[in-house]
Amino acid sequence: MVAPSILSADFCRMGEECRHAIEAGADALHLDVMDGHFVPNLTMGPDMCRWIRRELPDALLDVHLMVSYPEQYFQPFCDAGADHISFHIEAMARDPGGGDEVGRAIEFIADIRELGMTAGIAINPPTPLQRVLPVVEHADMALVMSVNPGFSGQSFIPESLAKTETIASMLRPDQRLEMDGGVTPANAPLIRRAGCDLLVAASAVFGKPRDQRAGVIAELRGG
Ligand code: DX5
Ligand code: ZN
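That is the input. Now the predicted structure with D-xylitol-5-phosphate docked in place:
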């Protein structure tokens, strides 16, 4: 599956941009939510999700929460029409030692599912894989970041592929593996071979003129 991230879309024409991406073959739309605290950027909140849902009642909306307190936002995003919520294992560490971040993450996944959405656990490039592994079996999806989150248009970090290979070997057929950051038609074959079945791309899709986007989405998806 391919999920263009609307972070690189034209925010003045968001409805049109999203509709066009779906018509160009996107399987889902990826909403990058940043709070200026967990990452050094501010992007969008539940209202953006609500307007996209009104414009596209059937689109799969994949919300990626890069926020320090995701528990404050999953209900508003659900009310705004989100289908899926991913949150970061790093955001579950409420003290420097991490505390019971695994327990907290597993409980939060249950809370997200209780509202009828699917739940994903995300991990940043510098974070050791071991921190997320005990959570993966409880989630519908694992999201491996292949850039340090905050901005679109950064270069893919190749070491991320080892993480997806390990996670892929643990997944059940009903679980998905998403890669996010620096994904392009050039590196997509490697990413798919490393076990990912959901590729996110912001600049590679929305950075291109509209008439090229269907081609890019098809290349990301592969044969
Ligand atoms: C990280 C976000 C990504 C990112 C992707 O900051 O979670 O979704 O914007 O942007 P590209 O595809 O341009 O690297
Ligand atoms: Zn993202």
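Strands lie at 2-4, 29-34, 61-66, 84-88, 118-123, 141-145, 176-180, 198-201.
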